[in-house]
Amino acid sequence: MSEAAVPQKRKHDDDSSSTPIPEVLPQQTGDELEQMETNLNYNKWMKKIDNALQKNENVNETFESYLRIFKNDGKIWTKYIEHEMEQKEGGELDKKKIEKLFSQSLTKIYDVGLWRLYLKYVQKINADGGEMARSIVLKAFNFAADNVGIDFLESQDLWNDYIRYLNEWQPSNANEAETRIDLTRQVMTRMIQVPSLRLEDDWKLFISFENDTDQAKARKNINDQSPDFMKLRPLSQELYVITKTLKESNKRRHSKRQLDRFAKWIRWEAANKLSLPDEKAKERVNYVYRVSTQFQRFQPEVWYNYVSYLFNEKQSELALETLQNGLILNPESLSLTYQLANYYEGQSDLAKVKETWLQLIRYLTAEYTKKGPEKEKAKDKAKETGTGIDSKKNFARAVSTCYSLLMRQAKRMGTIKDVRSIFSMARKFKGVTWQVYADYSLIEYQSNDVRVAIRSFELAMRHFGKEYDFISAYLDFLISIKDMTNCKKVIELALQNFKDDNQSSFKLFKRYLKIELGFGDTNSIKALERRFIGRFPETTPFDLTVLGFQSDFDSFNVARMTDQYIEPYEVTRQQKSKITKEDEDDNEDYDGGEGFDLPKPLNFDQGFVPGFEPEKKKEPFIVRDEMYNLLRVLPKAEYYEDKPKLFDSKKTAEFFSNLDI
User: What is the 3-state secondary structure (H, E, C) of 84-100?
Assistant: First the structure.
């Protein structure tokens, strides 16, 4: 355990692996990080695009630069193509460029507006009329209906365009007139067979069409479709309730409500309540997944779930492309990086696994470096509030976690030389945490090199000897290899380090006592108990005995049940109140003098530390059963959305407050 026995650097740290990693990780400069953050700022891009359009300068370059990052933004694709359709060289459209833009976006994005623009373009270049041109346009409409006709939120506009085009068709003979009627009926039938935000309006339009076309056949045609419509209407209402609060967000913040809504929508589609064939049902599920990545593009969770779904459906190429697009928008995402690294692991490509992790490490390291001394005040405030989102310490832990995950993956795929190369690089990171040393030591131990594992822990002891969590992990390791001599040495050294830290010192004494009870003898246990009480005089011998009966596997303590007459797992609020009341009653019966207080049992399981007052937790607000019963019988809120406001909350509250029950 002497410092002289701990080498600063091992010879095999320099061993090269099959896919070597540079000893010094290329750092991302502050300017590069700022540029990346600017590239992901949606509002700045919108201003940049608007300025380019107003000045008519660098328009194409601006659109192309934006769409290389925000590849699934259908609205900007639409705006870009509209701009190109307005630019005419020699009085003609640049069809080649426009069609190239459509091919890059149309089938990869679920955006009804983009598809409507495509149909407008097809009609424009086939405006000469004739049966051939009309056939091309109708095929385009069917193509669009197949792709986005199932869109619950906006497909109505597409169907309206389709019907409007058919209505504008001027038949030249009776056969064409009959064909137009048949096509219109087919379109309307398709329209009322899918859930839609305006399904009721679609049904009314269908009835009106049948009545205006042929009164004799209208009743039969309407009756044929009525049963399916009646089944579809409540399902469409269910979808409305699920989707009514969905909204597109371009802000980098977590929105649990939106994520939950999309998850609920996906579960609804996966349940196949529409009783569709498997292929059609999967199309709808895929559609919702893709829409979620367009609405919540800065939420890594939606990308991760969509990619997982695609991998499960054996669509690996699309899954990989989607995952890479998600990482462009969320370069700091650990989950997406992990998912991509796992994919490359499945391909046995260690080089790409390393590069995937190092890309995230570079990004997080730059964020860590950016958090300079001027951020200390904000960091302290975050620490006080328990958030710590922007603290330098949290970014250090994030970078260290990435190194640990990379080491584990390198161990699975490569050799111990790969792991040592990564660990050597991790040690050069200024904010490296003890978890990297602990993970590396365990990997070495699993590789049957106990000597190196111990030396790694000893090296970490120099830097993290005042952190209780590290000491605890170190002790776990030493106990697992049955090195009780060094275990006690580490404890004694740590107790010296914790002499000014009562909380860590108490936890370590508690851990020490458990170790002695498990592996020591009577004399060593008694000696430690005396030291414990000497360090924390408020602790009684009985408290230490109760501590010894604490289960190593859960919070069960039999002595609390048999000797303290309380719940063996935890003390509930009601029981605490009862114990306190009984103590007060005992005090009243005691006639030995005023001011006598019964000693309360020390609650070791709840992290009690003598001399520390735990923060009082607020009691949760509890709604009584009577109120729940009332809420159950009230009509649902959605029943009143389109009706005059009849409910007055103030009068209702006044009514209940005046009730004499």
Answer: HHHCEECCEECHHHHHH
